[in-house]
Design goal:
Chain lengths: ~260, ~270
């Protein structure tokens, strides 16, 4: 099923991918391709098959049918959704990064500086916070100078301000190093500025294209419309009371 | 007392025991660290228990006992690895079933064969002082082999332990490494039976690394310090066993546990 032949300029391309788990279809007729320097974002609700598709692209999972073309000797940097840090193993960030091969210390420092986590270099992995760990994982993915970065919800556990910064960083890395990026995200609004192409997935591809196009697509609104308007509601809800300068409620409309 | 110590450590059989125990402790440091990191202690236990069945079969078929133990341990290691991937029964339950049923089967088979009278206790709790020069040779050969393999695959094994999928994508053959690790554990378990016995083998593998954890900043430090703590436990256990006239295997494990407790509580006492 898999082949390394190169049929176009893509780093990786897949078509007609099907996958079922114990009779339940998870992926149906998926088509996907990533060019160098291009950022492709997969969005979709829980159980849409995003992680399954990524695992197939990574080669960790076999599709039931379909074709995958991978550019020969393509190096992939992979950042998993989460990592269990085993507290019984003493391991600092520097040594963790060295697990992917013997890397020049200057190169490690450069990557850590780029990700603004140089201060974590000698910190034990077990003492690194969730948001910091995401950056350490991204650093590990960058260690081998990959042609393709695959990121499974890179912003998970990162606060809102940090998320925007992280996506900006990913987009910067992609354009500076010319590597393609495939990432999974929950939130189109946050990744919008950092992505070239969005694939909206719900077992099959509902719609795809430029982010501004997808965000207006009926299929996208169908999937995300309700939730998106809820998100907005948080900020536009009607107050039924007012506060004075000290924070005390002064009166209520409902009375 | 010093005189009797000198006498103790210049006796042939005690020196054999010491050499065998120290070699085992040496390799148990790094190998046991992996068992701790990967939470495989129950796996090691099951392997050790099933080794008794290996002994029984070996004795019945009149084959080389050391060889039959090694073969049965390797067989059970592969069997467990294959069974672990089957859905439906949790690994924990599966290991429990195999550990105890094979131990029981071993005892039953040994009891059934009238022609063989074996000292069951020696297999359960070890008989370090009965180690012969050929036993010692087995231990040293296996320890040297296991150490070499661990050294060669050290970084890959660490990487696969920390995150299997990242390791796989970076080009490490994780499945092969897992099998290698399991076979190494089986080899070490099979030669440590005479030293501490099937019931106590896992403790010698996991107590020293657990004790070394707090003293280590890197995985390598943990492995080396575990080897040192293991060796110390052998010497202390052997000496105590001699003076108090108690069984050697359990004395070694008690010594290791005492060191663990000391190291576990010492720094926090100092802080307070």
């Amino acid at each position: 099923m898999q082949s390394t032949s190169l049929n176009n300029s893509a780093l990786i391309s897949a078509k007609s991918i099907y996958k079922s788990f114990s009779g339940h279809r998870v992926l149906e007729d998926i088509k996907l391709s990533i060019e160098p320097g291009q950022i492709v974002t997969l969005i979709g609700p829980n159980g849409a098959g995003k992680t399954t598709l990524v695992r197939i692209v990574l080669g960790l999972l076999q599709a039931d049918s379909g074709e995958i073309f991978r550019r020969t000797s393509l190096k992939i940097g992979y950042m998993p959704q989460k990592m269990h840090v085993e507290s019984t193993m003493p391991l600092n960030v520097f040594r963790f990064l060295q697990l992917s091969g013997k890397h020049d210390e200057a190169m490690v420092d450069e990557t850590l500086t780029l990700l603004r986590i140089l201060h974590l270099k000698r910190r034990q992995l077990a003492a690194v916070s969730g948001g910091e760990l995401q950056r350490v994982l991204l650093a590990r993915a960058l260690m081998r100078k990959p042609g393709l970065l695959i990121l499974d919800e890179p912003a998970q556990g990162v606060d809102l301000a940090g998320q925007a910064e992280l996506y900006a960083l990913i987009s910067e890395i992609s354009s500076n190093q010319g590597c393609g990026v495939l990432m999974i995200s929950h939130d189109l609004h946050l990744v919008m500025s950092a992505t070239d192409e969005v694939i909206c997935l719900n077992q099959h591809i509902c719609c795809h294209g430029k982010p501004e196009h997808v965000s207006n697509d009926p299929a996208y609104l169908d999937l995300f419309g309700a939730r998106a308007s809820q998100d907005i509601a948080v900020y536009t809800h009607h107050h039924n009371h007012r506060h004075d300068l000290t924070g005390k409620i002064t009166h209520s409309h409902d009375d | 007392m010093i005189e009797s110590l000198i006498q103790l450590y210049t006796t042939d059989f005690v020196l054999y025991a010491l050499a065998a125990g120290m070699s085992l402790a040496l390799v148990a440091g790094p190998l046991g660290s992996f068992i701790v990191w990967r939470r495989m202690s129950y796996f090691g236990d099951t392997l050790a228990h099933s080794a008794l069945l290996g002994i029984a079969i070996g004795l019945l078929t009149n084959s080389n006992p050391q060889l039959s133990i090694i073969i049965s341990c390797l067989f059970f290691a592969v069997l467990l690895t294959l069974l672990e991937r089957r859905p439906g029964v949790s690994t924990d339950t599966l290991l429990g079933i195999i550990a105890h049923s094979s131990l029981a089967m071993g005892v039953v088979v040994l009891a059934l064969s009238d022609s063989i009278r074996v000292n069951l206790e020696a297999y359960l709790f070890g008989a370090l002082l009965t180690i012969s020069s050929s036993d010692l040779l087995w231990v040293v050969a296996v320890v040297a082999f296991v150490s070499l393999i661990l050294y060669l695959f050290w970084n890959d094994l660490l990487s696969a332990t920390v995150h299997a999928e990242i390791a796989e994508i970076e080009g490490t053959n994780v499945k092969r490494l897992n099998l290698i690790l399991v076979l190494l554990i089986a080899l070490v378990v099979s030669v440590s039976m005479k030293i501490v016995g099937v019931l106590l083998i896992t403790s010698l593998l996991i107590i020293p690394p657990a004790a070394a954890r707090r003293l280590a900043q890197t995985p390598e430090q943990m492995a080396i310090k575990a080897s040192c703590i293991g060796s110390l436990s052998i010497v202390v256990g052997l000496t105590v066993a001699f003076f108090l006239d108690v069984p050697v295997g359990p004395a070694i494990v008690v010594a290791a546990s005492a060191i663990f407790l000391l190291l576990y509580f010492y720094p926090s006492v100092q802080k307070a």
